[in-house]
Specification:
Elements lengths: L1 H30 L14 H34 L7 H8 L1
Helix pairs in contact: 1-2
Length: 95
Amino acid sequence: MKILFAPLGIISGRLAGTAARKLTDRVWAIVDDGRPPRPEQRSAGWPKLAAGLAVEGAVFAVVSGLADHGARRWFESFTGRWPGEDETAAEESAT
């Protein structure tokens, strides 16, 4: 199932990245004018850079996690099989 899910996972990941980038810009606009600072910018101060990276990381984690889970649910509804670990397999591997 992982091989069949791979193209859908790649597509949903790319779309999630684009959406996360746009959402990061909107969230950052609440905090400051302009775009979030990037590490390669010489003028970026440490506090502002850290805040920008924290916002970017949080938004990306939420958006990509939701997109991945949604793609897996869609795949399951289409094929009848979940493309990943279920709870029992995860619990067995944890012990």
